[in-house]
Fold this sequence. Notes:
The chain has helices at 10-40, 187-191, and strands spanning 46-47, 52-53, 57-61, 64-67, 72-73, 80-84, 89-92, 97-98, 103-106, 109-112, 117-118, 123-125, 135-137, 142-143, 148-149, 154-155, 160-161, 166-167, 175-179, 182-186. By secondary structure, the chain is an alpha/beta fold.
Amino acid sequence: xxxxxxxxxxxxxxxxxxxxxxxxxxxxxxxxxxxxxxxxxxxxxxxxxxxxxxxxxxxxxxxxxxxxxxxxxxxxxxxxxxxxxxxxxxxxxxxxxxxxxxxxxxxxxxxxxxxxxxxxxxxxxxxxxxxxxxxxxxxxxxxxxxxxxxxxxxxxxxxxxxxxxxxxxxxxxxxxxxxxxxxxxxxxxxxxxxxx
Length: 196
């Protein structure tokens, strides 16, 4: 009696294994990032669920720091930093994402809303050497690469801060802030079709 080996298409099996790896790998990386975040934010009073830190983060908390659910800190060339000085409050809303090299520093109060996106090398600090004033960044704000948000500024909901901008005055909701110092332009004007 002869035994026959079943016919298996090797390329098909390899393709299935590759598809399995591609579906499992991001979840495994996210799980590791969530464990890293728990360790990195161990000195934070309130850390939400499913916070993930993919890269290095410097955390110095001597005040009150509150991190919402499902935050993501992306890894890169330089670490991000969260600093909260004594008596200050730093809060970040749910589902906000940070690229690498972002610096948030609270001497009095820095509040970031939900579903915001921060590109790399952004500086948000409520003290500039001359005065200290709270910063409020409302929900659904996008801050582009290299932008700086100065003390006392409120960035309205659904606004965009352009790359390299220095924001020294309030940005109303649904507005594009760009330049140095940043000037405001309605996003409705930016998005309007020029052919109509």
